[in-house]
Amino acid sequence: MNTRPVLLVIAHGSRDPRHAATVHALIERVRSQRPGLRVETGFLDFNVPSVQGVLESLAAEGVRDVVALPLLLTRAFHAKADIPAVLREAPARLRIRQADVLGPSPLLLSALERRLYEAGLTPAEKSSTGVVLASAGSSDPEAIAVIADIAREWWHTGWCAVRPAFASASLPRTEDAVRELRALGCERVAVAPYVLAPGFLPDRIARGAAGADVRADVLGPAPEVARLLLERYDAARRPALAALGA
Questions:
Q1: pLDDT band at 178, cuts 50/70/90?
Q2: Is the pTM of this model over 0.85?
């Protein structure tokens, strides 16, 4: 019998059908990387199934252990408030551990570079290219600080420069960061969306990237992202495994 906890990936949800399609493609890649692991998806809003609906179904089946993994890149309001509130309403028979959000992680930097190279950049152009690290944005100062830290870390891997930008709530906007990199003298400018799936804010990033030479796709089902989901799942399981002496 499979005694591993079910992995419940919690996505934000969107009215844009591309969002759910991308989330499901990522989940399929996760399943392909670890056959035998049961992976379910629940959405906080707009899409079905809801997180609460999935939890109730799992409890009705007799499932006991669940690792709930926020499909989020930073610890902002959804990770700190929305998701814990939903999990508190789960059926009492379920033992739920909330995994960490995905970012920051070196795997995400690898996925960002993958998307830039898929969009036409080459590794030989890295040192002469300025990159806009374009995120959705947040009113949470912790989340904004994390994006700035990621930009600095990524710059130290060999780019001409890396500047953070935000589609909402914070400044600068993508187009402003593109102009800043032009003024800095970078030979070319690329925009790397630090977002997981298409939707309203990623579309705003795309519009702001009109003046760039290269615009990468969203992270989506990049293999590095799928691997990171499994790393977060494993980390959330470890306390229980230690208690069992495994």
A1: very high
A2: yes
Domains of the chain: 6-103+222-243 (3.40.50.1400), 106-215 (3.40.50.1400)
pLDDT band at 77 (very low <50, low <70, confident <90, very high): confident
Sign of the four-CA dihedral 21, 23, 29, 30: negative
Where helices occur in the chain by DSSP H, the ranges are 17-33, 51-61, 77, 83-88, 106-118, 141-155, 174-184, 200-208, 223-243
CA geometry: angle 12, 16, 177, nearest 5 deg = 80
The CA R_g of the chain, rounded to the nearest whole Å, is: 19
Is the four-CA dihedral 29, 22, 120, 177 of positive or negative sign?
A: negative
The CA–CA distances, whole Å, from 64 to 31, 52, 191 equal 20, 15, 43
Distance of CA 54 to the CA centre of its chain: 21
Do 11 and 43 contact (CB within 8 A), yes or no?
A: yes
Locate tokens 């399929």: which residue? Answer: 28
